[in-house]
Write a structure and sequence with these properties.
The structure holds two protein chains of two kinds. By secondary structure, chain A is mainly beta. In chain A, 0% of the residues lie in helices and 55% in strands. Classes of the chains: A mainly beta, B mainly beta.
Chain lengths: 124, 112
Amino acid sequence: EVQLVESGGGLVQPGGSLRLSCAASGLSFSTYWMSWVRQAPGKGLEWVANIKQDGTETYYLDSVKGRFTISKDNAQNSLYLQMNSLRVEDTAVYYCASYFTIFGVVTKEYFDNWGQGTLVTVSS
Amino acid sequence: DIQMTQSPSSLAASVGDRVTITCRASQSISTSSVRKYLNWYQQKPGKAPKLLIYTASTLQSGVPSRFSGSGSGTEYTLTISTLQPEDFATYYCQQSYSLPLTFGGGTKVEIK
């Protein structure tokens, strides 16, 4: 059974920093792209960042570029999101998700496993 | 950025009803009959989203066959053939054609 367990959320003041972690088990972590997706209270889903299997490529939502950094440690089966210069509008539940990818005649890309989420509240 | 628009934003239905949700992309998100970059997720209150359908019409393992997806180009549909009590939830479409990955605003399926 795949398990993704996030931690590190909490209350932080605007301008502050927080580091989220996601511990993965039950999947071949080193072969997966991984993602962070967030959901503001009462709102829809918003993709935040992706990281390639070996960590050599990263992609970000424009509004977090330069402030957030996604990373992964394949030896520890862990995914991270370093969040700096936090804003009130970053308040959300942050989900860790595995991003299944197959490229070829039939290309498939989708979020196939999700963690339970960790709440980040940015408020003074 | 590709905008994903779902309709309706909410609906009320009864157990046993047939339900159809539409998702429209602001540009084509398919490049051929076998390359369709549209996925569907189900989310229940306080829970993480769950993958239902990928590449527009392929049912994820373990998902009941009453769920089906279709579409191409810019227009896609999710159909629940016979609504069950456990299907009351919010449904999201998502495009994986290009970055940033984007989701529709969601369709909340409520009990009539």
